[in-house]
Amino acid sequence: MDILVTGGTVFVSRAAAEWFSARGDRVFVLNRGSRPQPDGAVLVRADRRDLGGILKRYCFDAVLDMTAYSGEDVRLLLDALGDFGQYVLLSSSAVYPETLPQPFRESQPVGLNCYWDDYGIGKIDAESELLARIPTACIIRPPYLCGCGNNLYREAFIFECAEIGLPVFLPERSDLRLQFCCISELCKLIEQVLMKQPSAHILNVGDEKMVSAEEWIRICSDIAGRSCEIRYASETAPVREYFPFRNYNYCLDVTSAMSISPYSTPLEASLKAGYAWWIMHREEVRRKPFIDYIAKHLF
Q1: What is the CATH classification number for the domain harbouring 108?
Q2: Residue 23 above 80 pLDDT?
Q3: Can you say how many angstroms the Cα of residue 97 is from the centroid of all Cα atoms in its chain?
């Protein structure tokens, strides 16, 4: 297939480009050309918000929109495309209001989630714009992503704490539980969506098993070779200043996605892959000052 991937240089968009290139498809990546490109991909150099007629010359079997954060992002890309077949949009579980009963199901209404604010609203607008114009498009809603290529400061934060012997803090009296999706499992699902063209057009994806924050910390630090001490911060300390996740429990029902592409990567295996990637790509991680805050205010 000829496949267009928006982005393609970092995080899940790069993983998708590399996944389909390895599969033997001809992959085109749409980005500004300011970062190293994935091996085997054809660069379409442009800003997705200023495309002009650059895409009209192409005919794509599939468009994988991995970098849309608003309805305008989707509208501009659709207006700029020539002929194409399937369209897959990477959305987010942030579209589900936190007040809904859990686990969240694809049939539930979307709306403002007070923990995610504008990010979730932007994803809702992107979904709405897409479905209004292409009702057969596929929308994928993952929870937290992890694994090889994760440049967000999540498991990398724990790896660094283990490396320097720093405690990791959790909110006091928190029973935080987390649900993850391995990046490679997300790519595998997209592949199966393109191959099988399922009737379900909105899919929650991820590991059906949740894990406590304490267990996640222990797995990450053990992989890094040194267990991190877990301590608890006062409830008045802003959790996003010292920990990479919101103090918010949520769970997705992933039954539909599992029927299309059974999930098979244990969390520990995904985090081991993430650690191997981090060792070689530390400079690509988008670090946040959690360690500085812990050193100054909690430790």
Answers
A1: 3.40.50.720
A2: yes
A3: 19
| The residue count for the chain | 299
Total domains in the fold of the chain: 2
Query: Residue type for 141, please?
Result: R
Residues 161 and 91 in one domain: no
Q: ∠ at Cα 297 (295, 299), nearest 5°?
A: 50
Can you name the residues that pair with 49 across neighbouring β-strands?
none
Tokens of 43: 């660069």
Q: What is the pLDDT of residues 227-262, one digit of tens each?
A: 999 999 998 899 999 999 999 999 999 999 999 999
Judge whether 171 lies within some domain.
Answer: yes
Give bridge partners of residue 47 from the DSSP assignment: 50
| CB distance 174 to 213 below 8 Å | yes
Residues 134-191 have pLDDT tens digits of 999 999 999 999 999 999 999 999 999 999 999 999 998 778 999 999 999 999 999 9
Backbone angles phi, psi at 150, to 5 degrees: -75, 105
Q: Is residue 257 part of a domain?
A: no
CA distance 296 to 299: 7
Residues 123 and 8 in one domain: yes
Using DSSP bridges, classify how beta strands 144-146 and 177-178 pair: parallel, antiparallel or unpaired. Answer: unpaired
Q: Where are the alpha helices (DSSP H) in the chain?
A: 11-23, 71-80, 118-133, 155-164, 183-196, 213-223, 255-260, 267-280, 290-293
Res. 76: pLDDT tops 90: yes
